[in-house]
Design goal:
- This protein has helices at 5-24, 27-33, 42-58, 64-78.
- It has 79 residues and is mostly helical.
- Helix 1 (5-24) crosses helix 4.
- The termini are far apart.
């Protein structure tokens, strides 16, 4: 089944919103909202930097719940 043009545009917008969220949001907020962590550790700093540098390659390393949190947070902030 081929995606419709509207579905493709939705995916593009989702990726744009995630990119904006990762680059324009305080890392402490990302750790708190996406990873449910009250502490911005070196692990999360490294993880967030990897997501900022290449989200499409690195998002496969995320737990499903964290990826869902990231999508929801970016959607809420930029839609």
């Amino acid at each position: 089944m081929n995606p419709t043009q509207a579905q493709v545009q939705d995916y593009i917008n989702m990726i744009k919103n995630i990119n904006l969220y990762l680059h324009n949001t305080d890392p402490e907020e990302i750790a708190r909202i996406v990873f449910n962590s009250d502490e911005l550790t070196d692990y999360y700093i490294d993880f967030i930097e990897k997501l900022q540098n290449n989200f499409l390659d690195f998002q496969d390393c995320m737990d499903e719940i964290h990826l869902q949190n990231l999508i929801k947070a970016s959607y809420a902030k930029y839609n």
